[in-house]
Write a structure and sequence with these properties.
The protein is of the alpha+beta class. The protein has a single domain, classed as Kinesin motor domain (Kinesin), CATH 3.40.850. 41% of the residues are buried. This is Kinesin-like protein.
Length: 353
């Protein structure tokens, strides 16, 4: 607590797709073990280091255990503000890593082996809260940022834009967002699937199910320790210790993409430009935060709604895990290198939880 803590950054390399294999794409990314990955292609020969690297054969369970996600859940229960976000090129496996197969629904659940970091974290959170015997109140909110508008994915009716506010005590926050209490795994998974189905997606040349928005699911964890025997005059509540308030936020960033590669036009092109602008703002903030504290200039969090909502996770008092997702295909080389450089810079960012 209060010590400088580096962002933990892990890398996941998805398998080559059937289309890439049929097309004859070469595999240009190779895991070297011990958190190192090597990129070898014409005019490119570089090695990058991360906290962990998961290659194409890694299971969803291995990613959960090896990324430090279990520890993040425990820290959130202890009252810390924790964030995990997945980023990378469109079609690189971000949503699969966080949620598992796209085809799942409440009537057609995914196979347990394929469940992503979110569902595994929910299970871990509920197990931990039961084993600690603590009185935890759990609630969830789910937002998307689409074309620079913040929209609630849980409120009934068509998603409408919500205002983003600033206060000295809370920092940036979304006004009037719905927060739904839950007590069981079924209830929180149901909220996740309902919200995800309302999220903006489209098909284009690189991805049949491309997320067109950034999505943030936040689990709010409130705990209160109360003494069993109230002192005279204290009433039924007993003497309440200060309540712990932790949070666990999952951020599924829309994929970076080149409009030329995706064949996007019209509305899709507008969406792509909006996505790329906010990712550029995020990259700029990360570059400035990666400098030593004494050499940092003003961090432009206000440049986008995304950076405003992630300000606390990146430069403040939070604990953050980043999952960089890449394709090993030679055709995606420039975007893969861009993601690797982005992730390497993020490793130098420090927060003070």
């Amino acid at each position: 607590e209060g010590r400088e803590t580096r962002l933990r950054v892990v890398l996941r390399v998805r398998p080559l797709t059937c289309t890439e294999t049929r097309r004859g794409d070469q595999q240009v990314v190779h895991s070297l073990g011990d958190g190192a990955v090597h990129v070898s292609a014409a005019r490119h020969d570089a090695t990058f280091g991360f906290s962990a690297v998961f290659d194409a054969g890694a299971s969803q369970e291995a990613v959960f255990e090896g990324s430090g996600m279990r520890q993040l859940v425990e820290l959130a229960i202890d009252g810390f503000s924790c964030t995990v976000f997945a980023f990378g090129q469109t079609g690189s496996g971000k949503t699969y890593t966080l949620m598992g197969p796209l085809a799942q629904s409440e009537t057609q659940p995914a196979s347990p082996a394929l469940l992503g970091l979110m569902q595994r974290s929910f299970t871990c959170l509920l197990e931990q809260s039961r084993s600690r015997g603590s009185d935890l109140a759990l609630s969830a909110s789910y937002l998307e940022i689409y074309n620079e508008q913040v929209r609630d994915l849980l409120s009934p009716g068509p998603p409408c834009a919500l205002p983003l506010r600033w206060s000295k005590t809370r920092g940036f926050y979304v006004e009037n967002q719905l927060s739904v209490e839950f007590e069981s795994l079924e209830a929180i998974v149901s909220l996740l699937l309902q919200g995800s189905q309302r999220r903006r997606t489209s098909a284009h040349a690189l991805n049949r199910h491309s997320s067109r928005s950034h999505a943030l699911l936040t689990i709010h964890i409130r705990g209160r320790a109360v003494s069993a025997h109230p002192a005279p005059g204290e009433g039924w509540g007993g003497s309440a210790c200060p309540s712990k308030q932790g949070s666990l936020c999952f951020v599924d960033l829309a994929g970076s993409e080149r409009v030329k590669e995706t064949g996007s036009s019209g509305e899709l092109s507008v969406e792509a430009n909006s996505i790329n602008r906010s990712l550029l703002a995020l990259g700029h903030c990360i570059s400035l935060l990666a400098k030593p504290r004494g050499k940092r200039t003003h961090i432009p969090y206000r440049d986008s709604k995304l950076t405003r909502l992630l300000a606390r996770s990146l430069g403040g008092s939070g604990i953050t895990l980043m999952v960089a997702c890449i394709s090993p295909s030679s055709r995606c080389l420039s975007e893969t290198l861009s993601t690797l450089h982005y992730a390497s810079r993020a490793r130098r960012v420090t927060t003070r939880p």
